[in-house]
Amino acid sequence: MNSAQREPARHDDVTRPPAITVWIVDGDLGFVCWLGDIFREVGCRALPALSCKDAVALMKELGIEPDLIVLNPNLPGVAGMLQGRIQANRHFKIVTIGPPPEALAVSLQAHAMLERPFGGESISRPEWVERLQGILRELHLREGHVNTEPSHV
Fold first, then answer.
1. How far apart are CA 78 and CA 137, in angstroms?
2. Pair 71, 94: CB distance under 8 Å
3. Can you give the pTM of this predicted structure?
4. For the chain, what is the radius of gyration of the CA atoms?
5. Residue pLDDT, tens place only, 97-145
6. Total tally of structural domains belonging to the chain
7. Least confident residue range of 30-39, 43-52, 75-84, 110-119
8. Residue 67 in 3-state DSSP?
9. Would residue 11 count as lying in a domain?
10. pLDDT higher than threshold 50 for residue 153
11. Residues contacting residue 114 through CB under 8 Å, at least 6 positions apart
């Protein structure tokens, strides 16, 4: 079938959100974009924010609640952002980028953790695709029910 014979996209195909909405909150723009690309590759809608304040403002402005928040737990305002999201939507999961500081570890209740690649470390995109798919499976986001057990990837 050539392009002239293709059916036009239906409006609901274009506007229907993917099954999983992921907010990525980290101060490193390159990492946020790179991780967002990989989440999109595995079928998620990835939305970036460079700070907790930006994430909260964008969630309100766009009216998009997360299914998953992937965040740097060392950013200022993490506790306040998560408390506000818990009040609005109790059904989202949290994945930290690195371990949380001791003061936040208990209250944060992360479901999984990703280790940030270090500067000299070789980054394998297929390996990261596999990691993110594993996290999504472990958190049962595709099945629509909550797994509250922590996971470290």
1. 25
2. yes
3. 0.77
4. 16
5. 988 887 776 667 788 889 887 776 777 889 999 999 999 998 877 544 3
6. 1
7. 110-119
8. coil
9. no
10. no
11. 70, 95, 96, 97, 98, 131, 135, 153
Residue indicated by tokens 């280790």: 115
Domain that holds residue 57: 17-152
- Strands, E, within 1-153: which ranges? 21-25, 45-49, 68-71, 93-97, 112-114, 151-152
Tell me the C-alpha distance between 59 and 51, whole Å: 12
Residue whose structure tokens are 């950013």: 75
CATH code assigned at 111:
3.40.50.2300
Please check the confidence at residue 2 and state whether its pLDDT lies above 80.
Answer: no
Give, in order, the Cα–Cα distances in Å from 12 to each of 9, 58, 124.
8, 23, 35
Closest CA to 71 of 98, 34, 109: 98
Residue 144 is predicted with a pLDDT of 40
Specify the length of the chain in residues: 153
Q: How many CB atoms lie within 10 A of CB 73?
A: 20
> 113: closest CA among 95, 128, 134?
95
Mean pLDDT of 84-96: 80
User: Six-digit token pair at 35?
Assistant: 């991780």
Higher-scoring residue by pLDDT: 97, 11: 97
